[in-house]
Amino acid sequence: MNSPLNITHVFAPGHETVLRIEDRATGLIGFIAVHSTALGPAAGGLRMRPYDSQDAAIEDVLRLSRGMTYKNAAAGLPLGGGKAVIMGDPAKLKTPELLRAFARAINTLEGRYWTAEDMGMTPDDMAILAEETRYVAGLADGKFASGDPSPITARGIFQSIQTTAHHRFGTADLAGRVVAVQGLGHVGAHLCKMLHHAGAKLIVTDIDDARIADAVDAFEAVAADPLGILSVEADILAPCAIGAVLNPATIADLKVAAVCGGANNQLASDKDGEALHKRGILYAPDYVANAGGIINVATEILEIEDRASFVDQKLAALDDTLNRIFQRATQRNCSPNDVATEIVDEVVTSKAA
Ligand code: NAD
């Protein structure tokens, strides 16, 4: 017999529903935020990390769920924005019982929120959630299982880099272009392979020396110090590690003509988008450039039979969106980040009306 979950509503203007979930038996304290279902069921991953406070966890889930509305809409997906967080160190607190309790909380939303893997979660954890809920994607097995999203994420970033180059340098040809890549994990490594294949010259870094050594070997890349990558001279910077790397301190030091990468939430704040624009640095909004991952996950949620065609079509549409963002930003002489927000707001509002 499962212990009863304690589920309460959190007041969050601007969000459709925010739930606080507590299960004394497993030590679970978590939140699910449904920002918008205007375009379809809210979709966004489940993150587990040791937050300093419940307020910090709520702030994160609200910010991330709103971000998912933007990302899903920019990708032209019939999905809304949602996200979930569980408080605590996954290594210490994550148990199958805790995950199952969380899955039961997801069920209370009756399909208005679909979860998937995010920080602190693995495909095995998704399989445990799936024992209790059908509203889970990112599974390793099953007819519609979408598997590791990173190769498709990297494809989306690569095409976005080409489009960014086209708008910034007048050609999408990357042969001879210098691209600085921060982070050589799942996304960064795939991206480096494609860039190398296209003839780009790579400057790479990671906090893991072995990953740098591998990239230097495989892609004739030049190694940079993790602290120095944001001030190397290059044509394009591709942040593929952590968030908030574009902030007043780093923007002042950048020696690139454009930024286009896969990391989520690259701008510390929207003002940093304007600061990049003022410096003449063309910024490809991260949630547009990295939406390949959610396109991949969407094939599972939407039970798409012909996955390859769906991915091709959505990546092409994503590229159109990025072109439209850059064109409007050029016409208005403003930050592409502001235009991206505006375009997505138009899509969501027109569907919600
Ligand atoms: P990952 O954990 O596989 O790789 C991240 C890499 O960055 C690791 O090699 C890590 O050592 C390195 N790193 C961490 N901090 C660093 C620092 N300060 N300087 C340099 N390197 C650092 O993660 P990933 O799946 O490759 O994702 C990378 C980024 O892209 C994340 O921001 C993630 O949220 C975002 N993203 C990923 C996907 C996807 O499909 N995996 C989709 C959308 C967005």
TrEMBL record:
* One Pfam family hit: ELFV_dehydrog_N
Q: Which UniProt keywords apply?
A: NAD, Nucleotide-binding, Oxidoreductase
Which SUPFAM superfamilies does the annotation name?
Aminoacid dehydrogenase-like, N-terminal domain, NAD(P)-binding Rossmann-fold domains
Binding sites annotated in the UniProt record for NAD(+) = G183, L184, G185, H186, V187, G188
- EC assignment: the record states 1.4.1.9
GO molecular function ontology, one term from the record: L-leucine dehydrogenase activity
Q: Where are the transmembrane segments?
A: none
Task: Supply the SMART domains for this chain.
Answer: ELFV_dehydrog
Q: Which family does it belong to?
A: Belongs to the Glu/Leu/Phe/Val dehydrogenases family.
This one is known as: Leucine dehydrogenase
> What is the species of this protein?
Shimia thalassica
Q: What gene does the UniProt entry assign to this protein?
A: ldh
